[in-house]
Amino acid sequence: MKFALSAATLALCAAVSLSAQALDGYRLESATTLKNKGGGWDGVSLDAGRGQLYLGLRKEGLQVFDLKKKKVIKTIANTEGTSGVTLIPDFDLGISNNASGSITPFKLSTGKAAAAIPMGGELEDSIYDPATKRLVVKMGAKGDATEFEVLEVPSLKKVGTIKVPAKRPDGSAVDGKGNLFVDARDKNAVFRVDMKSLQVTAEWK
Known about the structure:
This protein has one helix at 7-17; strands at 2-4, 33-35, 41-47, 52-57, 61-66, 71-75, 82-88, 93-98, 102-107, 117-118, 123-129, 134-142, 145-152, 158-164, 169-174, 179-184, 189-194, 199-204. By secondary structure, it is mainly beta. The strands form 5 sheets. A 4-stranded antiparallel beta sheet has the order 3-4-5-6, with helices on one face. The chain is globular, with a radius of gyration of 18 Å.
């Protein structure tokens, strides 16, 4: 079975080539058809410095697409069931978020992967906070709250757990000042979390 990269994905490719020019809109630059095993695909992340696009393919694992060569150059080991990747170029580190409830660390420069690290339970995605050098891994909801496991970078040792009082958190973002923001769909609210104390410090509805 085959699928084509979406226009949204290819727009990222076009954006790289247009970075030195005034942006006057997106245009389809090229299209590439990739083979897969029939499973779905999820997150897409761009490493602009290396000219590589990471594709989270459920069955194949995390694939690396070279934007100049316009082909897949590598599949990261131990990433079956991946939903996408978190890129941490300051430490030459990538983190594959696996549906099996594990994360797989690998080197961005070589693509060499370490063994998957079990996190337990359902795993959604992760986000890196450069201010505290901590990785936040979003797990599934438990009761009326969702847990976020917090790991040190680059050691990936667990330092604590954030509990957000929501069953359906969606997007999350960091502000570079040590704060994590979580959008909770079921609460129609946004929570702010202090990345040092790992406590919710504000809620907006």
